[in-house]
Fold:
Amino acid sequence: MLFAPAEHVPLAPYCTLGIGGPARFFVEADDEQTLLAAFDWAKRRGLRFLVLGGGSNLLVADAGVDALVVKTALRGISIIEAQKTVEVTAAAGEPWDDIVRLTVARGWAGLECLSGIPGLVGATPIQNVGAYGQDVSDTVVSVRVFDTRTAEVADLPSADCGFGYRDSGFKSGEPGRYVVLAVRYRLVPGGPATLRYAEVARHVAARGTGAPTVSDVRESVLAIRRSKSMVVEPGDPNCRSCGSFFTNPVLSPDEARRIDEIVGDASMPRWMQPDGSVKLSAAWLIERAGFVRGTRDGAVGLSSRHTLAIVAHDGARASDVLRFARRLQGAVKTRFGVTLIPEPVFWGFDDPREARPTVA
Structure:
């Protein structure tokens, strides 16, 4: 097939932050053949090959990226229903919340707490997307991938995906090796809604719902996310962000006790993990380190509704976002001795200290 990518295409319009420089080469792939041809074209020219999803978890350097960027546009959904489970396979370019909406409307439990998360299906296994007591890895059966090392397409079972807290083998094991083409999820028809997260449980109870359905939980999750500007909606300036810029730190019991001694506040949020570790609230630590919601530093700052979101206002540059993020990291490190880990993918930063995984 004739392959002719566009050149010097601005990436800012493809990212929720709305900042960042251009791609040296760019193409939109709406089928697997185009994606494979793009990979072959880049390999023959010695170019980096980067895959762009919804751009909701991506920071692109101001100078852009010297690479072939392929925008995922693979579409398609298939459903296999059994007596006690249903399997939904969605192509990587399907909007994530469309999948959640479809499954909730049919009463299938498993994804309801992941409502309102921006981005595409392809990013969900890479980031092991999670919120309000659910992780996408809870439902992933397999991931269809293109292996850039072998140039082959394969189906990886969930056990081979290296899932961890907001992490996977795709992200931190061998970043950039696999391109997600589709994901298969296993859900439970008529199953109970997940109510592990206190904030969601309180919201559902306040609405007078006695035996909440997955639809009830979805409505509450969407309402909570909207109250924090965590649903991308036109006209909301807080939405020019990557959502949560840092993951919640997970500490050993000894480390958590050390933080308790430093803080001296029994109300500090914490969540015990199955392995005995303790997850703390990154937002709480940032606030106690002196950064309140709405804090500004020039053209960047914290969301006025959510401490974990760094917002790019008019005139912001990627370097401004990175500098502000480091201010937050430094303040938390100085105050508590805890290192906050950025969640977004970084493209085009030459300093090895700034290197991030290469699939958005």
About this structure: The first strand starts at residue 6 and ends at 10. The chain has nine helices and 20 strands.
